[in-house]
Write a structure and sequence with these properties.
By secondary structure, the protein is an all-alpha fold. It contains four helices and no strands. 83% of the residues lie in helices and 0% in strands. Helix 2 runs antiparallel to helix 3. The longest helix is centred in the first third of the chain and has 40 residues.
Length: 137
């Protein structure tokens, strides 16, 4: 008899837990449906008129990092060229040439990422791509 009462008690506890979980899930879904509508109705905060400073800051950051990257490329390129002139071993010269190629690839990616994001962002209809111009120059 005690086994049977324990089984009935365990089953009623599981049923009560299931009901509670179902109730909480329904309330959460209903709240999410009601609360999401006002958020979806808002416009993009980055593109809003009052946040023009944020757009300028993003554009300025992209221009600054791209400009510094290009200047870094020029410094690395000149330094490697200078070091190539004073080295005698072929291995060191090959290492400097490889370093120059890597620096050129990095700067090319840095310059192309902004326009690529602008192009792909507008084709994917990203809201930030409409108001932020990431073309560095």
């Amino acid at each position: 008899m005690s086994d049977k009462s324990e089984a009935i008690h365990g089953q009623s506890a599981r049923t009560a837990a299931y009901r509670t979980a179902t109730y909480v899930s329904c309330i959460t879904v209903a709240f999410a449906l009601v609360a999401v509508d006002p958020v979806l109705a808002q416009e993009n905060p980055i593109c809003a008129e009052q946040s023009e400073t944020l757009v300028n800051m993003i554009e300025g950051f992209v221009q600054l990092t791209t400009g510094l990257g290009v200047m870094g490329l020029l410094i690395v390129w000149q330094g490697d060229s200078l070091m190539e002139m004073f080295t005698m071993s072929q291995e060191q010269q090959a290492g400097f040439k490889q370093h120059k190629r890597k620096a050129l690839k990095s700067a090319t990616m840095l310059v192309l990422l902004g326009p690529l994001f602008t192009l792909l962002g507008s084709s994917m209809e990203l809201p930030i791509a409409d108001c932020v111009n990431l073309t560095p120059f």
